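Worked Example 4.2. Consider the chain below.
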Amino acid sequence: MPLILIAAGILLALLSACAEGRWTQEGKTETHTQEDWEQCKAEVLSGQEHNKDTMAGGVNLSGCMHSKGYRFVEDLPPKPTGSQM
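Applying the procedure from the previous section yields the following structure tokens:
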């Protein structure tokens, strides 16, 4: 069982590092969003999210956030302003 938790933690870290974006929901503050994120993370690491049917099978952090009404938006790199010479 500890090996599963370690693997889930590593996968979670990798997925978080790859994503360039943020979770958003109208009317939610950044603090509330972070609290919901931490709750979802705890559920995934405790195995609660593994009991749900998903196409991916294992970790379902995105599904947890979606179930709370969030959507993921990609943060685009800033566009250069002015002329480039």
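The longest helix spans residues 2-18. Strands lie at 21-24, 71-74. Compare this with Example 4.1 before moving on.
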